[in-house]
Every structure is written in structure tokens, then in C-alpha cells.
Amino acid sequence: MENKENQGNPGCENKESINFIQSIIDKDKENNKYGGRVHLRFPPEPNGYLHIGHAKSICLNFGLAEKNGGLCNLRFDDTNPSKEDIEFIESIVRDVRWLGFDWEDRLYYASDYFERMYQDALTLVRKGKAYVCDLNPDEIREYRGTFTKPGIESPYRNRSVDESLSLFQRMRDGDFEDGSRVLRAKIDMSSPNLNMRDPVLYRILKKTHHRTKDQWCIYPMYDYAHPLEDYYEGITHSVCTLEFEDHRPLYDWILTNLYSSGLPQQIEFARLNLTNTVMSKRKLRFLVEEGYVNGWDDPRLPTISGLRRRGYTARAIRNFCDRIGVAKTNSIVDIRFLEHCISEDLNQSAQRIMAVLNPLKLIIDNYPENLTEELEGENNPEDSNAGTRKIPFSRVLYIEKEDFQEVPPNKYFRLAPEREVRLKNAYIIQCKEFVKDENTGEIKEVHCTYDPETKSGQPGAKRKVKGTLHWVSASHALTAEVRLYNHLLLDDTVEQQAEEENNDFIGKFNTKSLEILKGCLVESTLKNAPVGNHYQFIRKGYFCVDPDSNKGRLIFNQIVSLRDSWEKIEKLNQDNSR
Ligand code: ATP
Ligand code: MG
Q1: Catalytically annotated residue among 2, 33, 45, 315
Q2: How far apart are CA 372 and CA 395, in angstroms?
Q3: How far is CA 534 from its chain centroid?
Q4: Residue 273: which residues within 8 A CB-CB, separation 6 or more?
């Protein structure tokens, strides 16, 4: 079950965790267990796009290899032809590379081992360790028993080796229908571990495989294939998630019944669970196929492709994976911690610009009508090498609607009748008048005067006012579309159960997870902003140029707002512990 204790406090897993797999590796090195070799693998099944949980596994496996002077393979665990696809293979290769990891020439496919696996299965049959069983899937399930009820042996369990060999050959030849026979390991039907009750090793599946085409009509089960894949590749430490803990005895059984030395060992760690989102590939697929989101790279999804499109950097994701650490018990990480990691990263690197998302016209009545001044703006106060840029200033500007209030509430330091504010990088202005739509009550425009003595960077600029607003010049600004995002799921319950078949989570789908603003105005600096570039829209948040911009429009994705809710949580935690 999930342990909620660590929620909102990923830092606390950290110290112990880095060590627990590393210390196994250290011990093995000390004992010269694999001749000092350290060889890991990342083994995705190409049945969907990778998500942030996979990123944790990628960072862990490639990271451990690097740290120990070892190797890490990329291996496609493509043993189930029914849900797998080339599109997924390509996306996985792209995503692992983008995250910054390199498998050199070690890209492997489980399907390349099908013949060898078949030969190994024959060996098990010859040794009397496997048999062909004619029970159908329902009967097999029934015979297996439960946690409280021991299993019943199959009536085919003791058929002769020769008969099993011949039937297994005929299974391969396509003589039998799907589901009519399987190859099973002969282990122990009364084992307390259900995985050891004569598990199925091979099934008949007359499906075309994306790589081996129609060469095979029997396919190995995951539990049989995986240890062999690891062994064939010389893997030393086979790191996987906790749900495979109960499968470890079977992993070892397969290997020890076939091979005697250099056997890989399986080590389990807790998978990443995040609040407010889904990570099971099946559920992600449902969202994509049912049109809840716009494809696997929809910026609302926690897929690597979605996060990249949203504007996450590989560095921020790696940093997040490092900081949440690796533990042996399941926990849930608050998605706001992921958001905090990208905020921190972009605070250092993103260029600042001004963008008005909900424009309200502001006219400076005492400013010369045909004048344009080039004012200077800092590109990034966090980076002394970032320099400055010229920003055009003129008589007619736009500010945010929310930055003017006819009747300002308490502690509102923005614009209101007779109030003064500073325009960022420009002058102090004072509100003199405003125009209201008589029917709707909506404020149409605001009229101000400016004080020429208060230009930013000039001596007069010392005069202080409480509020500073961002703005754009009406005749210079560019129109842009801005896509604002909210969490995918409304409450923060986790959908960690990949096996859970139902789609109840859809009731929590946040219908306001995407909001599109069409008439936004941005600084002219962004005219040829390249796709993928990051910006801080001053006072608003971090944004990234979306690939759709190529079609002649300027489109931004909101990455995170400037209100860093994680920092608030951290502060609260600290205050509470004082
Ligand atoms: P899902 O459960 O999301 O459908 P999966 O586990 O079936 O994914 P695989 O393609 O088999 O996906 O995963 C490849 C590797 O990534 C495995 O070693 C798996 O343990 C690991 N992995 C998958 N999800 C997570 C996660 N949330 N946290 C950490 N590692 C994960
Ligand atoms: Mg899996």
C-alpha cells in the first residue's frame, strides 16, 4: 500500500536511497562478484510513450552505470506484439537521448532473442522443468488457487517429455489456436507465492510482430523472457520496480535451471508516484485515444514528450529525479515539487520579457503623440552575462486587465483612480480617468499622465511607489496565443495502480486543465522566437514557444506560474517544525 508519509517531502528519502542499490553494487565489487563489472539496462516495453516515472528509472540505471564506470543498455522488451508499435520505439529512443543518456552501440530488442529463448525452453522441457498444458486460460486461473487456497496440479503436468517436446514444436508451427495450449514451468502448485505455481512461459498468439512479422506465433511471457534477456546481455544488476518483488523467485528459478554462473540479480525500488496526474501507460493511452488530450505530447501529460513540449528542460527533470531519490517503500511525490525544479532551473536561464495576457488599453495623455523611446530592460537579473535589450515605449500601451481596479481592495498596490505606479523599465504614471462600457460595466481604457523625471535608470527614478506593472507598446507589440495549463487531475489522489483496469480516474479529469488565450500581446523582441525557447514573462511565469508556432503564429505554453507553491509548502513545513 501507499505510504503517504513522505508526501510533500521528497528530500527525506534522499540520503538513504542513493545508497541502497549503490551499496549492493559496492559489496559485489568488493567480492569481485562479476569480475568487477557493473552492467545495467533500461528495458521499456514499446507500448506507449515514456513518462516521468520512466525518467526516474532511466536516471537511476544510466546514473549508476556512469557512477560505477559501468555500462547501461537500452533494451526494448518487445515480447507482446498486440500493443507494441514502431512509433513508440522511435519516441523512446528520442526521449532517452533528449534526457541526456547514451547507450552507445547497445540498443537491443528482446525479439532478437526469440530463437535463443525457444531453445532454452526446450532445455527446460528436456530437464523435466516445463510441460505443455492443454488447460484453457480460465481453467489455468481456476487451478492456480488463491492466497488462501493451494493450487491444483494440471492433469497434463506429468505428460512425457517427448510428448511436451512434440506439442511445443507444433505450437510453434501454428498447429493450435490461440489460448488452446501453453508451455508452463513445473515448479510447485502449493507454493505460497502464486508466481511459482507452474507459471505460463509461452502462449500462442497469432499476431504479426512489428519486428519479427509472422515468424512466430508463440510468444514468451515477461517473467520468462526478462531474466533471459538480462543474462544474454551480461547484465549484473537488474533494477526494476517494487511490484516485481514477488516475481524475483521466478526470475532466479528460470536462470538457475538453465545457467550456472554470472547470473544477474534483480533489485527492486519504489516507483515514482506523482499527485494530480496519471502515469500508467494504459491510462495515458486512454486519455490520448479518447481525445481528452491532444496526443502523447500534450503539455498536460507527464510524458517526457509532453513535458518537453511544455518547456521542461532535461536538466530540470534529471535534477528532480536526483532529488526525489530512490527508496524501498512506495511514496507519493507532490507534483508541485516537479514544478519547483523547473522554476529553479529557468530562474537561472530564462530571458525576461514583458507580455500582457489580458490586455487593457492605457493612454498616457501627456506623452508626445508620435514619439517612440527605446528603453532599456535587463534580460536576466540572475545572470550577469545576459545583458540588456531595447524596449519600445510610446503613448498608447497595454497593461493587464487585473492591474487596474476602479475600487481597489485593501493592499492593492496596482493602478486605480488617482493612484501612482511604476511601469517596469519606464516611468511612474498616475491614473487620471477611465472609460467604461455602459452596458457591460467593463473597463475599456485607462488614461494616465507620466512624470518625465522618473525614467528608470535616471536620477529621478529614485522616487518610490508601491506597485510596478509590466506593459507593452500598442503599436509595437506582437499578438500571440498563450496556452495556460492546470493539473490534469483535480484532486491529488494518485493513480499509481497500472494494473487497475477501470477508468474511474476520468471522473477527476480537470476540464479546465487547458485554457487558451488568443489576444495576448508580447514584446516585439519575440518576433522570431525559436520553437522551444524559454522566457520568463515578467510577473506571470515561465513560458515556452510551442512547435505549432511554425505555422506563422506565435504560440506559447505556460510552464509554471511565478507563484511557486512548493516554496510555500516548504516554508510552512519549516514554520510548523519550529
Ligand atoms: P506502466 O506501469 O506505466 O504502464 P511499465 O512499468 O509497464 O509502465 P515499462 O515499459 O515496462 O513500463 O517500464 C520500463 C522500466 O521503467 C521498468 O524497469 C519499470 O520498472 C520502470 N518504470 C515504469 N514506471 C515507473 C515509475 N513510475 N517509476 C519508476 N520506474 C518506473
Ligand atoms: Mg512493464
Answers
A1: 45
A2: 8
A3: 19
A4: 2, 53, 279, 330, 331, 332, 333, 494, 496
One-letter amino acid of 351 = Q
Chain segment 247-301, per-residue pLDDT in tens: 999 999 999 999 999 999 999 999 999 999 999 999 999 999 999 999 999 999 9
The whole-angstrom separation of Cα 32 and Cα 36 is 5
Q: SS3 for 425? A: coil
Query: Hey, whose CA ends up nearest to atom 23 of ligand 1?
Result: 54
In angstroms, what is the span from residue 124 Cα to ligand 2's centroid? Answer: 25
Alpha-carbon distances of 137 from 160, 206, 286, 348, rounded to whole Å:
22, 16, 26, 57
Question: How, if at all, do strands 472-473 and 396-400 pair?
Answer: antiparallel
Domains of the chain: 113-220 (3.90.800.10), 355-470 (2.40.240.10)
Kindly report the pTM of this predicted structure: 0.93
Give the C-alpha separation, 512 to 263, whole Å: 51
Q: What is the pLDDT of residues 488-531, one digit of tens each?
A: 999 766 655 444 567 888 999 999 999 999 999 999 999 989 99
Extract the C-alpha cell encoding 47: 507500448
Q: Where are the beta strands (DSSP E) in 243-324?
A: 265-269
Please report, for residues 14, 144, 327, the alpha-carbon distance to residue 177 in angstroms, rounded to integers and kept in the order given: 51, 22, 44
Taking Cα atoms as reference points, which of 230, 293, 169 lies closest to residue 39?
230
Give catalytic status of residue 553 as yes or no: no
> Are the CB atoms for 41 and 265 separated by under 8 Å?
no
Ligand 1 atom closest to the CA of 272, numbered from 1: 28
In sequence order, what are the residues at sequence separation of 6 or more whose Cβ sits closer than 8 angstroms to the Cβ of residue 372?
392, 393, 394, 473, 475, 476
Each residue of 32-55: pLDDT tens digit? 999 999 999 999 999 999 999 999
For 578, the 3-state DSSP assignment is coil
Ligand 1 atom 22: the closest Cα is on which residue? 54
Residue 439: phi, psi to the nearest 5?
-80, -45
Counting atoms of ligand 1 from 1, which one is nearest the CA of 280?
A: 3
Residue 358's Cβ-side half-sphere holds a number of Cα atoms within 13 Å equal to 12
